[in-house]
Amino acid sequence: MEPCACLDGRLNAPAGRCSGEGRVPFDALLDNYLAVFLAVIVGITLILTALIAARVLAPYSKERGKAVSYECGMLPIGRARSQLHIRYYLFAILFVIFDVEAVFLFPWAATVREATKAAFWEMVLFIGILAAGLGYAWKKGVLQWNKQ
Predict the structure, then answer these.
(1) Which of 99, 107, 90, 86 is nearest to 130 (CA)?
(2) Which label site among 25, 47, 62, 106 has the fewest CB atoms less than 10 Å from its CB?
(3) What's the whole-model pTM score?
(4) d(CA 141, CA 143)
(5) Residue 74 is assigned to a structural domain of this protein
(6) Residues 98, 127: contact at Cβ < 8 Å?
(7) What is the pLDDT of residues 17-45, one digit of tens each?
(8) 23 has which bridge partners?
């Protein structure tokens, strides 16, 4: 009798415990893991080869200028920290909000025909809340780009 494994992971399950159609030959399971193992070995080999080649072939010099933060030909003079206006952060937050909306909206739109009425109204409520947030931001003037 050839060793078999059940789909739930039991090896050589007693008769009656694992139906004949749920049995997979043990060699087939090892073949699948062998492919994954080989892919991991090839991936690690490629990464190590690239790192070693970069270290061996790349030019390297111990100049004082290499330690300077900005190597663009100008000496870094002045403060390294600059202040940004709050409107940049507000635009970034609004972008993230509507980007997350798109992440939820596209899969829902792809399956809207199979969705129930409750799923439709939940999405309408979700879009309504985001529209209310956009309206609030618009009313407060967050979306106006005035130079001050």
Answers:
(1) 99
(2) 62
(3) 0.40
(4) 5
(5) no
(6) no
(7) 455 555 667 777 676 788 889 999 999 99
(8) 6
